[in-house]
Every structure is written in structure tokens, then in C-alpha cells.
């Protein structure tokens, strides 16, 4: 990624979905030392492109799963996002949990 990131004090970014797009955004935020939460309904990123290799190399399948918590620590929350309340700047997860932006 070549874009510049400007830091705004008091801003907390919530990234919904840890797919290729989400993890790229979260990784950039992490490397810039910015406050963020990555939310995904699964506990691990599945590198589906690498899954093609797993289909021909025995034992490789497990390596196509990369646990979010190992990469993003406490900045990762597992849950299903149900809606985003833009007025209150909160993300509501299934079960009523809330993550603030
Ligand atoms: C087998 C396979 C091989 C592929 N090979 C290639 C390739 O060689 N080259 C290429 O360019 N592309 C390839 N693709 C396509 C590529 O994987 C997609 O374009 C890419 O994954 C899209 O990224 P994304 O971040 O937009 O979405 P996704 O990767 O689909 O990520 C979305 C994430 O959001 C999470 N999520 C969804 N809903 C919620 C919710 N309500 N709350 C919380 N989390 C949620 C999901 O769990 C998921 O982790 C392949 C796809 C497949 C299936």
C-alpha cells in the first residue's frame, strides 16, 4: 500500500471483515500505531489462494489458516456484525455487544 495515513487524535477505526481487504487495512493501521479494532465472525483468516497449493501438497492445508488473535492481539474481536450505528458511531455485534468507533 502506498497511501499516506494521517493520525487524528481520539479516532478509533473499526474494520469489519478480516478478508484480504480487511487485513490489509488492519495491518496498515497496526504498522502506523493507530487505534483500531478488527472484527470477523471467524477466528482465522483463510488464505483461499493458498488453498490451491493445499490441494496438491499434503499437510499444507493447516497453513492456509492464519489466526487473527496471533497477528492482531487485543485489537481483534470475534463476532458477527449486525449493524453500524453511524449516529452513535458504534458497531453492533450479534448478541448485543458494541464496539465504538
Ligand atoms: C478458492 C479461491 C481462490 C481464489 N484465488 C484468487 C487469486 O488467485 N487471485 C485473486 O486475485 N483472487 C482470488 N480469489 C478471490 C479473492 O479471494 C477475493 O477477491 C477476496 O477474498 C475478496 O476480499 P475481501 O476482503 O473483499 O472479502 P473476503 O475475503 O470475502 O472477506 C470478507 C470477510 O468478512 C467477514 N465477514 C462477512 N460478514 C461479516 C459480518 N457480518 N461480521 C463480521 N465479519 C464478517 C468474513 O468472515 C470474511 O473474513 C479466490 C477466491 C477463492 C474462493
UniProtKB/TrEMBL annotation:
InterPro entries for this protein: FAD/NAD-bd_sf, FAD/NAD-binding_dom
FAD/NAD(P)-binding domain residues: 12-54
Assigned keywords, A-Z: FAD, Flavoprotein, Oxidoreductase
Q: Return one GO MF term.
A: flavin adenine dinucleotide binding
Coiled-coil ranges (or none): none
Identify which cofactors the protein needs according to its UniProt entry.
6-hydroxy-FAD
Q: Which reaction does it catalyse?
A: menadione + NADH + H(+) = menadiol + NAD(+); ubiquinone-10 + NADH + H(+) = ubiquinol-10 + NAD(+); phylloquinone + NADH + H(+) = phylloquinol + NAD(+); menaquinone-4 + NADH + H(+) = menaquinol-4 + NAD(+)
Q: Which GO terms describe its biological process?
A: apoptotic mitochondrial changes; positive regulation of apoptotic process
Protein's recorded name: Ferroptosis suppressor protein 1
Q: Which family does it belong to?
A: Belongs to the FAD-dependent oxidoreductase family.
Read off the SUPFAM superfamilies from this record.
FAD/NAD(P)-binding domain (SSF51905)
An example of a Gene Ontology cellular component annotation for this protein is: mitochondrion
The keyword Iron appears for this protein: no
